[in-house]
């Protein structure tokens, strides 16, 4: 059973940086893929970054030069370091994973509550 809680969002000026954290209530060592999504008003939710248990990463092209995803399995935490932020990065950011439900054994999406990132001068 996994519960995810994001933190680290806030208001930042263009060119600034933020570090988002997603802490799981239980161990994530058994979870292969952890994801970061974002959703801006009037836009579809999009995958921003993903990381596997072994450290393999994926980024959407628009953030690849500026964002870095990492994880610390010992701390049950996933991070998203965001540098050189742009106004178009403004969105609510969510951490996410899809794993088998412990009771039903069906693939189940687990989402955090999200943390708001606003990039504005």
Question: What is the topology?
Answer:
Layout: E1 4-7, E2 10-12, E3 18-24, E4 34-39, E5 46-51, E6 57-59, E7 67-72, E8 77-82, E9 91-100, E10 107-111, E11 115-119
Parallel strand pairs: 2-11
Antiparallel strand pairs: 1-3, 3-8, 4-5, 4-9, 5-6, 7-8, 9-10, 9-11
Q: Can you characterise this structure?
A:
- Strand 9 (91-100) and strand 10 (107-111) form a beta hairpin.
- The termini are far apart.
- This protein has 121 residues and is mostly beta strands.
- It has strands at 4-7, 10-12, 18-24, 34-39, 46-51, 57-59, 67-72, 77-82, 91-100, 107-111, 115-119.
- It has no helices and 11 strands.
- Strands 2, 4, 5, 6, 9, 10 and 11 form a 7-stranded mixed sheet that branches. A 4-stranded antiparallel sheet has the order 1-3-8-7, with no helix packed on it.
- Helix content is 0%, strand content 50%.
- The mean pLDDT is 94.
Order of helices and strands: EEEEEEEEEEE
The total strand number stands at 11
pLDDT averaged residue by residue: 94
Distance between the termini: 41 Å
What spatial form do the alpha-carbon principal axes imply?
globular
The helical percent reads under 10%
Oligomer: single chain
Keywords:
globular; 7-stranded mixed sheet; single chain; mainly beta; 4-stranded antiparallel sheet
Structure described in brief:
The chain is mainly beta and 121 residues long.
């Amino acid at each position: 059973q996994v519960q995810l809680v994001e933190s680290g969002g806030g208001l930042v000026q263009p060119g600034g940086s933020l570090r988002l954290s997603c802490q799981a209530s239980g161990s994530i060592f058994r979870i292969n893929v952890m994801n970061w999504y974002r959703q801006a008003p009037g836009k579809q939710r999009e995958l921003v970054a993903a990381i596997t248990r072994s450290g393999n990463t994926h980024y959407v092209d628009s953030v690849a030069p500026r964002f870095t995803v990492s994880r610390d399995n010992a701390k049950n935490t996933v991070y998203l370091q965001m540098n050189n932020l742009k106004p178009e990065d403004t969105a609510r950011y969510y951490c996410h994973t899809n794993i088998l439900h412990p009771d039903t054994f069906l693939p189940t999406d687990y989402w955090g509550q999200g943390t708001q990132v606003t990039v504005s001068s």
